[in-house]
Amino acid sequence: MKKWLVVILGIFVAILALAAFDPTVYVEATIGEPDTLDPHLAYDTSSGEVLYNVYENLIAYKGRSVSEFEPRLATEVPTVKNGLVKDGGKTYVFPIRKNVKFHNGNLLTPEDVEYSFERGLLYDPEGGPMWMLWYAIFGVHSRDEALEEFVGKPVSEIFDAKTGEPKADYKQKVIDFYKKVVDPAIEVQGDNVVIKLVRPYAPFMNIIAQSAHWAAILDKETCIKLGLWDGKAETWWKWKGMQKEESPLYSYAMGTGPYKFVEWDRKQQKVTLVANENYWREPAKIKKVIIWGIDEWSTRKAMLEKGDADSIAVVLEYLDQLRGNKDIQIIENIPTLSVTVLAFNWTVNTSSKYIGSGKLDGNGINPDFFSDIYARKAVAAAINYDALIRDVLKGFGKRIPTALPEGLLGFDPSLPLYKFNVKTVQDNLKKAWNGQAWAKGFKFSVAYNQGNVGRQRVAEMVKMYLEMAAPGKAKIDVQPLQWPTFLDATKRGELPVFILGWLADYPDPDNFIFTYYHSNGDYSGRQGEGFRKFVSTPRKELGGKSLDELIEQAAAETDPQARAKLYVQIQKFVVDNCISVPVYQPIGVRVQRTWVKGWYDNPMRPGMDFYSVYKQQ
Fold first, then answer.
1. Which residues are within 8 A (CB) of 517 and not within 5 positions of it... i.e. 6 or more apart?
2. pTM over 0.85
3. Are 119 and 125 in contact (CB under 8 A)?
4. Shortest CA distance to 331 belongs to which of 63, 599, 603?
5. What single DSSP character describes residue 539?
6. What beta strand segments (E) does 284-379 contain?
7. How many H-runs (helices) and E-runs (strands) does the chain carry?
8. Using an 8 Å Cβ cutoff, are 448 and 31 in contact?
9. Which Gene Ontology terms cover its molecular function (predicted)?
């Protein structure tokens, strides 16, 4: 009798477990939340993951490859062989797929594709990703640079500072800028969209492939109804200065992708998506997706162990806590094209609350404190890199000499690495600001995004070893900030020291070198005017060229060997001047329930491809 009771109890427990298992719902417990859902402003992986699953691009990466493509909203991938790449690589023809519907039922048209590209180019928000399309198509780095070339005047003279409207003398020129520059570059020809580049640019296809949400296709009719650009040449500038929260797409998304956007619950840091049952491919097996920002590791871990989460953002320091659980799968040694860097702001915004008094008086730092090389070198020597990789990352990271990851052209492992040494910290602090930093003392904050334990440990090391090297003189605050708050603070130039990663937009060295070290790179605004002046000034050690010029020369070089040599020259200068501090290149680790099937890695993807997975016990 007792034996039968045990058997019955076992069956009952199994039935309860099956009842709790829902193969139609996927819960991802991650860190933080999106910054914005506007595809032309979003420039972070948290936002990108949502956009990846809601919107679609013309083409997509094929499986795990970063160089092979497959059609998405275009029916063919343009090649020279199929006649869709013409003019020596300057013209790309995309046949647009028919009978595809947006989530609201509207049919996709070639005009939607044209509008999507043009709206993004004309909006081109500061700190956003649209520079890539400007550079790929037009050979310039921004809308304003192109507009100034066309009009022949600085933007500050073209527009009225109070009204934002073009001054009377330039209004027709501003209208013609759209008609003669932007519009002819993206044209509808029957069922095709034709994109014309000013010169051949090899990474163009990578720049517009799925995961690059800046090239996602929006519904023109819906965008206009929401209050975005109306598609007219006579009005385009009215939207060019739109701030993040002002965008109708800030917390709303509607594309053609396998998932529909339902809600972004800001209080819970939770995004909900549901399957698009009218998807032009087969509908997704997972019918509901919850992307939930849970900053506390213990909570994420408990959710995974109980089966309340299907996958979680793992803290590598605590990875061993999950080993041995038969219901949890740990996938290790996933290749990445990513780096984590500690960066300096060489000219901090004077309104910043992260520089104390704003003076070098023992209770703060002067805004340009980190324009001094010895101040930067002191911080570089205060990070115990080996301990970080061994103890915090559990070996899932590697040292790199600069912000260029291993695996890309120009990576040189023989370049020197910064070394952890408390005596070196002290020696550099004594030299900083001609000894005034040591004599007067200093105080500032080091910031990281809350919930990211690896970056937290870096910030804590900077605090510990600076204060150890200069007891009573160094006062360092470690500042955990919510992800959107952190990003906003960096973009406003308020953080003197911040720890931030970069995932490749496209697999080319220029995407890292330009981003981190060029005066027009995405991080330049976060690194301050002092940084921009430094890298744009000609240098004897660079043969009379500026670092900017050398980076541009390397990007344009077509001979791989010559190009690699230029990148090594650039990196030597970067290391010698301690422009920023590469902390590590991550080695990917994924943690999920064993019932998750179909997941695959691709280093270009900003997060999960929920369409590819299903759940099966």
1. 403, 535, 547, 551, 570, 574, 579
2. yes
3. no
4. 599
5. B
6. 288-293, 311-312, 328-334, 338-344
7. 21, 21
8. no
9. peptide transmembrane transporter activity
For the segment 174-196, the average pLDDT, to the nearest whole number, is: 98
Q: How far is the C-alpha of 483 from the C-alpha of 434, rounded, in Å?
A: 36
- Residues 424, 476 contacting (CB under 8 angstroms): no
CA atoms of 241 and 126, how far apart (whole Å):
9
- Provide the CB-side half-sphere exposure for 565 (13 A, CA): 6
Q: Which residue type is seen at 417?
A: L
Query: Which of 179-193, 313-327, 463-477, 546-560 is predicted least confidently?
Result: 546-560
Mean pLDDT over residues 11-29, rounded? 69
- Say if residue 19's pLDDT is above 50: no
Predicted local distance difference test score (pLDDT) of residue 54: 98
The confidence score (pLDDT) of residue 556 equals 83
Q: Is 536 helix (H, G, I), strand (E, B) or coil?
A: helix
Residue whose structure tokens are 């990846």: 52
Instruction: Please report, for residues 326, 496, 511, 534, the alpha-carbon distance to residue 143 in angstroms, rounded to integers and kept in the order given.
Output: 54, 29, 19, 24
Written as six digits, the tokens of 159 are 């527009």
Separation between Cα atoms, residue 531 and residue 517, nearest integer Å: 9
595, with CB counted inside 10 A (0-12, 13-18, 19+), is middle
- Return mean pLDDT, the chain: 95
| 598 conformational bin, left if phi > 0, alpha if psi -120 to 50, beta if neither | left
Residue % of the chain over a pLDDT of 70: 97
Report all structural domains of the chain as residue ranges with CATH numbers, in order of start: 25-32+257-314+590-615 (3.40.190.10), 56-246 (3.90.76.10), 341-586 (3.10.105.10)
